[in-house]
User: Fold these one by one.
Assistant:
Number 1:
Amino acid sequence: MKKTIFAAFVVLINTSLIAQNLTNDYLNNLNTISTSVPFLSIAPDSRAGAMGDVGVATSPDQNSIHWNASKLAFITEEQGLSMSYTPWLQDLVPEISLSYLSAYKKLNSKSAVATSLRYFSLGEIQFTGGDGQDLKKFSPNEFALDGAYAMKLSENFSAGVAMRYIYSNLTGGINVEGGGATKPGNSFAVDLSSYYQSDEFEIEEKDAYWAAGINLSNMGNKISYTDGGEEHFLPMNARVGGSLFMELDEFNTISFAVDVNKLLVPTTPVYDSVGTGPENIVAGQDPNVGVIQGIFQSFSDAPGGSKEELNELMFSVGAEYWYMKQFALRGGYFYEHETKGGRKYFTVGLGLKMNVFSLDAAFLLPATSGVKSPLANTLRFTLLFDMESLYATNKN
């Protein structure tokens, strides 16, 4: 009996060690999460882009519909407009860009509505056939049209919802060998968000307040580019974060913010050498599931277990300094684990606020030395308008 128990114990230990070694192997492998329409995840405005892509709990502005629509219930100006332009991946293709237009209007002291349009252009592409012959030239493009509503549920807490229509035309209807004719992808998605802003308190005799927010974004049906073909998840995402605002004196203010992101999309499992069906999975779970199941599965399906799940978290930290509420200096950092894409970059930016309009600019600096990043030298511009001040100026 003792020998049997000892043998069973040895087998159990060996099995555990083997499983641990396999888990460690999976943790060291590149296993990024792929989605359709990734342009929905790009920071569209220069303020957030200069602060390491934080935004879920920063002070509300004209671009809050992207980061956390519920913040708009706390905005003080009656209405505003914002226009942004971002040349994207310029070191790879000079014609790729993201344009963004957003606007909001307060309905009363407790609620607001907003809308936005983002347009992503991939430049002109020459399609070729299997034997290399030229087929056609086409300019792939994608856009998303949003509408949002935010409302205060108490003096300190608000909730918001945003509805989104997504259009993605990547091929112009070209025929794919073995796949037939392609078509534009269409989808509808929703964002659910909430925001809490504390009462003012003092830190070293300086007025301050803190805020927290959460935004579940791009939750919607999958996209397909062929009739009856493979369907792809949207970049469904959970973003949570907090911020701290301090008034240093009558001329100077500073704020700090942090965001944590996780894609709510199944992780690609590890398959054996025979095939890629569910019966061939050796670690992880089948990613070919419905949207709701995919959201819940995304928290526990990584082949490397809980350690790999933690590797799927993305972190953003940022700071913003204002002088006389007219000149802003911003900085931030974004981190993504090496096995999940390895994006690491610093961001800096400036802001200038006038009576009617504000101008923001942001610049991205890769944080990985010795590796040329396609995100290097990304420059964003944003022009914001305070429509109430504009109307008052016109009247005068």
Note: The mean pLDDT is 87.
Number 2:
Amino acid sequence: MKYNAWFQCSEGCNETYSLDEIIYRCRNCNGLLEVRHDIEALKHRGAAAWKELFDKRYMRTEYPYGSGVWGKKELVCPNIDTENIVSTYEGGSNLFWAERFGREIGVPDLWIKQCGNSHTGSFKDLGMTVLVSMVKHIISQGRDVRAVICASTGDTSAALAAYAAAAGIPAIILLPKDKVSPAQLIQPIANGAITLALDTDFDGCMAVVQKLSQRKDFYLANSINSLRIEGQKTISIEIAQQFDWEAPDWIIIPGGNLGNVTALGLGFLIMKELGIITRMPRIACAQAAKANPLYRSYLKNFKEFKGLTAQPTQATAIQIGHPVSYQRAIRTLQQFDGIVEHATEDELANAAARADRTGLFNCPHTGVALAVLLKLVERKQILPSDQVVVISTASGLKFSEFKIGYHQDKLPEIQSRHMNSPIELEGNYNVVMKAVGKHLDKNQS
């Protein structure tokens, strides 16, 4: 069976375009585009057969199907030939049973989807493999693409630089100066990307990169390009697969530019349409209080949406005041009986640190989602019997300054309630044993 997918306007005019066309918005109405699939063709293979196929490929060595993304190629991007796929075997990330933390907060069936366990340390790899593969496909057709470009708060730039380097395609990265962690800044630099630090915020970088994207020899890699969304939707498919093809009750996901909320919904929707799952989860979008335009819209039942100037937050990847994908995210949340909540700097930092003490190592964006989890449990919107998945978007190792600042109690607006600093002692056995005994007795009391 031959499968097919295409771009289609998401705003109702239904204009369609080929996936290998360099286009990001509908020429007819300027609406965002979505990738649509030939569902009737996909239905020729039954739900049981899809599950069997995906399980057979999962984390195996037949290239590229061992990838968590390309193992679902037919539901993601069937139009690309294998020789043009650029993959680092992304996906396949741990669904961590946070049993101890879950028991502490009264939700024993709590799971953390560790999307940071990926090639560049964030979930952005899932979308970038699809996008860069399509660019390689376009170039193979003889068309001139001089570079792939993006604006980023850190993780997108790392993913684009790595995949572009693997493909041998130049990458141009626009970052807000002094607003990303050193670990994030060094990733595109190390991969040889042309890295530009602009004296503005993410929204300012995005304005520049969208002007650059009007050139047909530059290919835009931000999530306004829905090929990214297609790769990221495999988070949903993989979660269902890891639960033996069942959906959880709740999924909590950090939201900045909001493409991830859309992607999460699309994954569940296509599985439901094909009969792979029988029920849908509820989705909670977690925003930082310093950058919360979707939360403010939610408080007004989504009747209006106003962008804002995002304020500095430890959750730098979601420090976005004018999210590109807000309309798609709102539609997704309405379909999934979704809610939006926000977290202050103090709440996100302490939630991350509290969960760290049960064996995790959370980035600040995951801290936002965990803080929202705590609020929903306290309000009894999430019940003790619910199965809950929190999406951890990046590795905590990319945010060592955030961790160090927390445990030195030096982060602004944050009271470090779970601080754990090194104890400096002389090199003497008796002194060491006295200190160890004191702390063990304190912890056990």
Note: The longest helix spans residues 124-140.
Number 3:
Amino acid sequence: MLMTKERRPAIRTLRGWALSVLHGAGAIHECEEHGWAKDRADPHAREHALDIARQEPPDSLSPDQAVAELRGMLDSIGDTCPECPPD
């Protein structure tokens, strides 16, 4: 029986790659109603995402550049949805 390794989805932009890594690590999640990315403020998930970036950067980036891209993305994501009414 032929065994294949599960393929990772094709990511076309660095932004898409960063969102995918952050979401996969549990550092961000989506607003259920509007789909905006929200920061979970989980330091362990953030560190896990940064470890992934260091170990598996996209072909076009060095590990340091990949970490910088993730940090930039985290800095741009808030912990609330801009479309949801304030509590």
Note: The CA atoms of residues 22 and 49 lie 6 Å apart.
